[in-house]
Amino acid sequence: MNRGSKAGIAAGVVVLLGVGGYATVEAAGLLKKTGPLSQDEVRSAADDFLDAWAKGEVADAAELTDDERPAFDALTRFRQDIGPDVSFQARRREADEVAFSVTVRFAESGAGPDWTYGSSLKVVRDEGSGEPRVDWSPAVVHPRLADGGRLALVENDASSIEATDRDGQELTVEEFPSLATVLPTLAERYGEGLGGEPGVEVRITEQEGGAGGPLHVVSEGKKAELRTTLSAKAQRAAERAVKKYPESSAVAVEPGSGDILAVANNREDGFNAAFLGNRAPGSTMKIVTAAALLEQDLVGASRPAPCPSTESYGGATFQNLDKFEIDGGTFSDAFIRSCNTTFVNFAERVGADGLAGEAKEVFGIGLEWRSGVATFDGSVPEAEGPELAASMIGQGKVQMNALTMASVAATASTGTFRQPVLVAPELDGREIAEAPRSLPDGVTEQLRGLMRRTAAEGTAAEALRGLPGDVGAKTGSAEVDGAQTSDSWFTGFRDDTAAAATVEAGGHGGDAAGPIVRDILAAGK
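RE: above sequence
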C-alpha cells in the first residue's frame, strides 16, 4: 500500500510552487503535494482506510489518518469489543467528506440481525507529507462517540425480568419513570434465579456526560416474571403527584403487611431519594417523640401540656412558628398545632437514649431493612443537650426519607412495625427486620387519635379536607443549613394505606408535601 512520506522537511530547503497543485522540494529531491484535494484523492484515501479497517489491518488503517495513535487505539477497541466481522459501503461524497454505512455481523449465539448504521469521515492533506489522510475523530467510528468513549457489548439485566405489580399487571419504565433505578436492580438480583437471561446491547461506555440508551440490541434475552408488592394504581397516582413539585419524593406502604405500594421521585439528578435520601424530617418526627412520651407516661393526649412561645434547653433557645403559644392547652392541642416548645420541654425527662431507643425498638428505625433493593433505613442517634432537644422535633442529626416516614405512619396506625418490602422475602429466603416490641394498645390508640385530630383540625387539615375513611397525619418543616426555605414533609394514613412525601425547599409541610400525600391516599391501592 502506497502511504506516501510522513517525514518532516529539513530546514533550509527551497520550495518552488509548480503547476497542478504540486511543489518541488529541490533540496530533498522530493515531490510534495499541496493545494485542494482532488476527488480521486478523497475517494482513494477513504476507500483505503475503510478497506484496511474491514480487513482488520488496524495499524494500516490508523496510519492512513492524521492522528495515528488515537486512531489505532479506537479501531483496536472496536475490533475487540464489538467484533471483527465488519463491512463498509460509501454512500456519497461531497468535496472532502465521505458518508458511509457500517455493517457489523455478530457471532454470538442468539444474536439478532446485523447492525447497520451511518457515519462519515473527512479527508485532509497531511501537513508533513502532503498526502491525503483521514481527519481522525472518534465520531468516525460512530457519530455519537466522543473522546474517552467506547462502544461495548453490555448485558442488559433489566431484560431478564418482566416486573409486575401485586395483581400481575406489568410495570415498565416507560409508564412509571420512577422505577428506572428500581427495576434494573431487581433484575440483577432476581432475574437469573427466576430463569431469566439478560439481553445484550451495544452501548457507549466511559464517555463523560453519559451516553444515552442502547444503540443496537444484539439479543433480546429471556424474561422471567417477577411479582413485586407495588400497586400499579398507587404507583400511577404517586408518579402524577410528585410532578406537582420539583425535587419531591413519595412512598406508600400497606401498614398491615409492610408491602411497598408505590415509590416516586421528581428530581433532576435521577437520585432515588424516596428510598436512599437522608435529610432531617422536621416535625413529622414528633410521631416517634409522642410515642416515647406516651409510653413513659410523661404526657397523655387529654392532659395539660405547656406550649410557650419559646423554650431553652442545653444553652439553645427553640421557638414555635411565628412564636405562637397555647395557654392552658393539652398535649393533643400541642401535637395538632406542632408546638416545638412542648416537645423540647420534655427532652431532659426522655433522656439521651429514650428517643433513639423508641425509634429503633418500636418503629424499626436504623435496623437493617432488607426490602429487596438498597434503602436508607433512617437514623436517630443518641444525643444530649441541644442536640437532643433538636432531635425531639426532627432536627439535629435525625435523618429520614419518604420510605422511613411512611413506615412511621404505618407503625403508628397499627402499633406494630412491619418492615417495608418490595419483593416477598420468600423469593430469596432473606430475613426481614423485626422491632423488639409493639406499642401498648392504649398508647397506639392515643397516637392514632393525635394523628386523626391533626388531619381533621390541625396543620394537616387543609391538605386532607374531605378525604373519607380513617385518616390521620402529621406535617413537618425541616430547616436545612444554608437553605432559605425549609423542606416540606408530610406523612399520614388512610385505612390500610400509609404514605409520606418530602419536597426539598418546599416550605410548610401542608403546602407542598401534603397535596402529594393526599393524592396518593385518595387513589388507594
